[in-house]
Design brief:
- The chain starts with a helix and ends with a strand.
- The longest helix has 17 residues.
- It is elongated.
- By secondary structure, the protein is of the alpha/beta class.
- It is built from 18 helices and 27 strands.
- The structure holds zinc ion (ZN).
- The site of zinc ion (ZN) has 5 residues, from loops.
Length: 576
């Protein structure tokens, strides 16, 4: 068979990405499941598609890694330039079957960590749709695993949502409905739509991979007894689960009798220790959506294979089915959002906490100087389907820069300061404007005969060169004395007239200096490994006026970049 070119392209893309993840050798099973996840329509044709995947996989695996990289660049969609993206608005498509005034969406985070940029995307899309149709948004904490969930995380999510400007009509917990969910689970077992399985995890896994049923599934005599015992507390964790009576031979592994309830001994933040039998996401999500009146349930693409199960669970219980759809997950290159990767770095002290400015958590983005309006605009610019590829972090920066620009004062900071002594300079007071066009006031600075300039500027100076100290006057360099980490430069003041062609540099007056640090977050991961050089500290002098700025306000250090005031001695670098 010959494939249509879009299918072939999808398979090639998936295969190349996988190959580059695994030293040039793509893995068949992974490529099949990823292809099916991105093109579920192919599932009905799987017998024809698999040989084609094999053929393309062999082709890709026979290439050198450098050839694979070139090919990937050729076929993957070109990234939109960040600055252009600011102008572009793709917006959200209409919702299938949506009626004005009747749309109910929900944002269902698990309170098992701090909310990040991926949560922001989901919550913003959920809210935008509710607004678009004059409907309502439910914030539902999906809290059915007491081993992962903590009160701290519920609070962090609520704060993050509030910071983004999202206003849910209802805030609730899945755990509020725990007994209702348990009753539906029991009903499903007694109606033979599910069964109590006493097999251990290893056996379940083995039978699942072979597509075989276990004996518990066929049990016609003691299944009700097992159910009673399970809820009466007769079993230890892992000794019994409730499994959906699915199809062990299904191509969709999510349908191979997935677990719907398991026993967990833990201190739940809301329920305490009174409950031991907890529903899994696969059971709780469809039930809660249906019972809460959700009309449109949106989730990220990695759940796509679970849609069949979502619908099957509701059908078997004769419950209303919401419309389910997927959007791509948002994550930046080199900035994973997964708790599995972030938590260990916090625990071993590589990161200072969930608000470490290198993280893509909302609390860290806020600390770094990102504005919620910029995040919203950025998310909406991605639209619905675009960007299976990770957008560059610079795209978000471009939106933020646009929002920060007119509200941020322009002040001077010199990194690794070098003294500049100006002969024949008369002491002057200069009035410096805090912004070139916005009405942000001015400040007065007294200059005697010495200022500080940045080491990077000093390094470029030589005897005889002329520079302009911004908003002050021009000087001609007479002597440069620079050693490894110390130095002094001598100059003559030559003119107060602005000459356009000479280099203009920022400065800090000798008597106006405030020792200051700027924390510069870099890519947290490079080549999939923790980047131990991901935090740079720039030390230098800022103008003393910086201490008048409100804590957490944004400032633009001229020729340096936007920063957010972190405390009286330091700022966090936002972006250039
Ligand atoms: Zn079993």
């Amino acid at each position: 068979m010959s494939l249509d070119s879009s299918i072939e392209r999808t398979i090639k893309l998936v295969t190349l990405k996988n190959a580059l993840e695994y030293d040039g050798k793509a893995k068949l099973e992974a490529v099949i499941s990823k292809t099916m996840a991105s093109r579920p329509d192919l599932r009905t044709n799987i017998k024809v598609i698999i040989p084609e995947i094999k053929r393309l996989l062999d082709q890709v695996n026979s290439l050198a890694i450098s050839e694979q990289k070139t090919l990937l660049q050729e076929i993957s969609p070109p990234a939109v330039e960040p600055e252009k993206q600011v102008e572009k608005f793709s917006g959200l498509p209409e919702l299938h079957g949506a009626e004005l005034g009747k749309v109910v969406t929900r944002f269902p985070p698990e309170p098992n960590g701090y909310p990040h940029i991926g949560h922001a995307k989901a919550a913003i899309i959920d809210e935008e749709y509710a607004k678009m149709y004059n409907g309502k948004l439910i914030l539902r904490f999906d809290d059915t695993n007491p081993l992962n969930e903590r009160v701290e995380y519920y609070d962090a999510i609520k704060e993050g949502i509030e910071w983004l400007g999202i206003k849910p009509a209802i805030i609730k917990n899945t755990s509020d409905d725990i007994f209702i969910l348990q009753d539906y689970g029991k009903k499903l077992v007694t109606s033979r739509g599910a069964y109590v399985c006493r097999c251990d995890q290893k056996t379940i896994q083995m039978l699942r991979s072979k597509g075989l049923e276990c004996a518990c599934r066929m049990d016609n005599n003691s299944y009700e007894q097992a159910l009673v015992e399970m809820f009466a507390g007769s079993f230890e964790p892992n000794e019994a689960t409730i499994r959906f009576r699915g199809d062990m031979t299904s191509l969709n592994s999510a349908m191979r009798d997935p677990t719907l309830f398991r026993i967990i001994d833990g201190d739940h933040p809301v329920l305490g220790t009174k409950v031991r039998v907890y529903p899994t996401y696969d059971f709780a999500a469809p039930l809660e959506d249906s019972l809460d009146g959700v009309t449109h349930a949106m989730r990220t693409k990695e759940y796509e294979l679970r849609n069949e199960l979502y619908n099957a669970v509701l059908e078997r219980l004769h419950l209303r089915k919401p419309v389910v759809s997927e959007f791509s997950r948002l994550e930046f290159e080199g900035l994973p959002v997964s708790k599995r990767r972030i938590k260990p770095l916090i625990e071993n002290g590589s990161l200072s906490g969930w608000d470490d400015p290198r993280l893509p958590t909302l609390i860290a983005l806020k600390r770094r100087g990102f504005l919620p309006e910029a995040i919203r605009k950025f998310v909406l610019s991605l639209g619905w389907t675009l960007a299976e590829a990770k957008p560059p972090f610079e795209s978000l920066e471009a939106f933020n820069r646009k929002n920060l620009d007119e509200h941020s004062m322009r002040l001077f900071f010199v990194r690794d300061p070098i003294e500049l002594r100006i002969k024949n300079a008369n002491p002057v007071s200069v009035e410096l404007r805090n912004h070139p066009s916005s009405n942000l006031g001015s400040r007065s600075v007294r200059v005697n005969d010495t200022v500080y300039i940045a080491r990077s500027d000093a390094d470029r100076l030589s005897e005889g060169s002329t520079i302009r100290l911004m908003e002050l006057y021009n000087v001609k360099i007479t002597k440069v004395e620079l050693a490894q980490d110390i130095g002094r430069i001598y100059a003559d003041m030559i003119s107060t007239n602005l000459t356009h062609s000479i280099q203009k540099i920022q400065w800090v007056a000798y008597d106006d200096k405030l020792p200051y640090k700027i924390i510069i977050p870099k890519k947290l991961f490079s080549n999939d490994k923790f980047n131990s050089n991901s935090l740079e500290i720039a030390s230098g002098y800022a103008e003393s006026f910086v201490s008048n700025l409100r804590l957490h306000s944004s400032v633009q250090f001229v020729r340096y970049g936007f920063c957010r005031i972190d405390n009286s001695q330091q700022a966090v670098f936002t972006h250039r």
